[in-house]
From TrEMBL:
Protein name: Uncharacterized protein
CC per GO annotation: nucleus
Pfam families hit by this protein: Fungal_trans_2 (PF11951)
Keywords: Nucleus
Region annotation Disordered: where it falls in the sequence: 293-312
């Protein structure tokens, strides 16, 4: 393929059609099956519009989904369902209940934040440097992403292959994948975790969802975002096996394209690490010290499980028993101050994960990022 498009033109056209349908519904309210169809189409458009913004290169930075649901918001929503719990989701002026959306699951209200993040990152990509207004907006988005919470109640779906817990895990994977993407674009943002740490969190959340679950069909976005950051062979093999299982189930070409881009990212980073970095190493001259003067300080004997380069499986093991519900999972997002040194908290945001220096190679402007690969290949792969 010489060019792969995310289909953004078609999605923008669909926006106009849905806008017309919502106007007609406002004038003459739909009911029953027709209302359910309109709600599904509106939510499906949000899902596709947001994910297309992640990889498209055009200059459209409009928040169409924001305009749409704010325009049609009504005071009657959200509704209180038969269970007595409030509904959740984007308010298009349509009834809002507490059922899982087929595409967005329980993360409907998270998708506008993902869309705003994608819009900002497209501005970053086209700019020569990150301006103070960009960094300020990124900090606001970071706070909103960190404080976003899934709904308190979700009605159990009729589909036996779709568990509420799987939807909650998937929502957290989307949230952390977006935080990862934001940090890659604006490394000036203070962050307790490295991009590798955030990617591992995404992989852990995905790993807790069995392949038999229906939620797996919407794991393209988080698996791609986190998969490109994997540098441990064990993790890479697990990621490839996950892609293979998804491809066999979904039978769509997007999976193959995601794998192609991801493996090219791995190849470029491995080549850079093995060929470029060794040539940049400068020997450090050290003074001779008598071995009799050496004493064991005991300060550097951290267990291997706490080292940053360990497989994500060690993190999964460390968080055993906390992966079932979103309120317990959120404890993982804060980080353990006792296991972090203060210097890393203040400086880690702008560190290059490969060579330890500030730079752009691993940011969205660099050729070692998946955006750089897609740019070189002329691809825009829809991650959904």
């Amino acid at each position: 393929d010489q060019h792969l498009s995310s289909g953004n033109d078609h999605i923008q056209g669909a926006r106009a059609m849905i806008n017309i349908a919502l106007n007609q519904h406002k004038q003459s309210a739909l009911t029953g099956l027709n209302l359910a169809r309109l709600k599904f189409l509106a939510n499906a458009w949000v899902y596709l519009d947001v994910l297309s913004r992640v990889t498209t290169a055009d200059e459209d930075t409009s928040d169409d989904y924001d305009n749409l649901y704010c325009l049609y918001s009504t005071p009657e929503s959200p509704q209180i369902g038969p269970s007595g719990h409030p509904g959740f989701g984007i308010d298009f002026g349509l009834p809002i209940d507490s059922t899982l959306d087929p595409l967005m699951g329980c993360a409907s209200t998270l998708f506008p934040l993902i869309g705003r993040t994608a819009n900002l990152i497209r501005r970053v990509y086209r700019a020569e440097s990150n301006s103070p207004p960009m960094i300020s907006q990124a900090m606001e988005l970071k706070l909103m992403l960190e404080t976003w919470e899934p709904p308190a109640f979700v009605e159990p779906p009729e589909d036996p292959t779709c568990d509420v817990r799987h939807a909650l895990q998937t929502a957290e994977a989307y949230r952390w994948a977006t935080l990862l993407y934001l940090h890659q674009a604006l490394p000036e943002i203070p962050e307790r975790l490295t991009t590798a740490d955030m990617a591992k969190k995404v992989l852990v959340f995905l790993a807790t969802v069995p392949l038999a679950s229906r939620c797996v069909i919407i794991h393209v976005y988080p698996l791609f975002m986190a998969g490109c950051e994997a540098d441990v062979e064990e993790d890479r093999q697990w990621i490839k096996s996950r892609w293979a299982a998804m491809s066999q189930r979904m039978r769509i070409g997007i999976i193959d394209k995601c794998v192609d881009v991801m493996e090219e990212v791995w190849r470029r980073r491995d080549e850079y690490k093995n060929k470029v970095l060794p040539s940049k190493v400068v020997p450090v001259r050290r003074n001779m010290v008598s071995t009799a003067d050496l004493q064991s300080s005991g300060g550097n004997n951290r267990p291997a499980a706490n080292r940053r380069g360990s497989s994500f499986n060690s993190i999964a093991g460390a968080s055993e028993g906390t992966m079932a519900w979103a309120n317990k999972l959120r404890r993982m997002t804060v980080g353990d101050p006792d296991k972090m040194d203060s210097a890393s908290i203040s400086c880690r945001g702008s560190r290059d994960a490969v060579n330890g220096a500030t730079g752009t190679l691993l940011t969205v402007r660099g050729r070692l990022h998946w955006i750089g690969v897609m740019k070189d290949w002329g691809w825009e792969v829809l991650l959904g």
